[in-house]
Design goal:
It is built from 12 helices and no strands. The protein is mainly α. The protein has one domain (about 5-300). Helix 2 crosses helix 5 (about 90-100). It starts with a helix and ends with a helix.
């Protein structure tokens, strides 16, 4: 039995009767995420003040837009992933938004635990949530690895990239039920094609930060895509380990050491961390509150229709 099978078996044994406990866990993780994200912002304001200027705010506007587009694309894949087992509703948007706020918590894959806890009070089988976490993680790594290989190793890189993307297609197709293989392949190809612009958006975020910290002419956007996919896949590979905090920053410094002075690479890594943290907090909070508000209004309207006032 593999490690994943053991984890699934352990989590799946937990009874649904403990739904209230899971709700408490989800609420505590959400609160911890908000506190931590605010803490990161407060303790690193000097980085933002250092680059405070028209270029910074223009870059920040672009970064926030790219980040939102990336989150929307990632949610689309998650929604299609669970659509075989549950009708996707506003509740899924709310859960995903809260999960986004937990991604920056240090010490392991707390966002996975948070997603499991929040879905425990829905009809979606816990086994599907757990396996879905692993599938989403594996697809992101394989697509990012394939993109890095295709951009970094020339002709042989494209062959290796094809193998990585082929593995992603196989996993995505194997996940689907009650479909012929052609439809499974088309759906799997859709997921892979959605994840490619997610990684490209991450590279553009890095490029805009490079313009702010270092200036133009040092790295082009394809260089930034290569660096971002390399650092991002390494970070994802150890995302569930307690020592994962700071891996992306160290990776950036190591990957840029031949092109950028170490001090500038460190400043760049810190700026990216702060901006990504703020984006997680801002867009996660916005998605959570808006979806919760719409659900509340819809529920109130439904009650009014069932119990019309005289």
């Amino acid at each position: 039995m593999t490690m994943i099978d053991r984890l699934v078996e352990i989590w799946s044994r937990l009874p649904r009767a403990k739904g209230r406990l899971w709700q408490v866990v989800g609420s505590l993780l959400t609160l911890a995420a908000v506190i931590y994200l605010v803490y990161v912002f407060k303790t690193n304001q000097f980085v933002i003040r250092q680059y405070n200027g028209p270029l910074f705010w223009k870059a920040l506007a672009g970064i926030l837009g790219l980040y939102l587009a990336s989150l929307v694309l990632q949610f689309i894949v998650w929604a299609r992933l669970i659509a075989h087992y549950r009708k996707v509703t506003l509740q899924d948007i709310e859960i995903y938004a809260r999960m986004v706020m937990m991604r920056s918590l240090p010490g392991g894959a707390w966002h996975w635990l948070g997603r499991i806890s929040m879905y425990s009070v829905t009809e979606l089988p816990m086994r599907i949530v757990i396996l879905g976490n692993f599938l989403e993680w594996a697809l992101l790594i394989l697509v990012g690895l394939g993109l890095w290989l295709s951009l970094s190793l020339g002709r042989w890189g494209w062959l290796a990239a094809a193998a990585a993307w082929g593995a992603a297609l196989f996993l995505a197709a194997a996940w689907q039920k009650d479909r012929n293989w052609f439809r499974k392949l088309i759906e799997a190809l859709t997921w892979v094609l959605i994840y490619i612009p997610v990684w490209l958006a991450g590279g553009l975020v890095l490029y805009l930060c490079v313009l702010v910290v270092i200036g133009p002419g040092v790295l082009n956007w394809l260089d930034c895509v290569r660096v971002n996919t390399a650092a991002g896949t390494m970070t994802l590979l150890i995302t569930f380990l307690p020592s994962s905090l700071g891996v992306r920053e160290v990776s950036f410094i190591a990957l840029l050491q031949n092109q950028v002075a170490p001090a500038l690479a460190l400043a760049l890594a810190l700026l990216i961390r702060i901006i990504c943290t703020l984006s997680d907090l801002g867009w996660g909070m916005a998605g959570w509150l808006v979806s919760r508000l719409i659900r509340f209004i819809s529920s109130a309207d439904r009650q009014d229709r069932l119990n019309p006032r005289l």
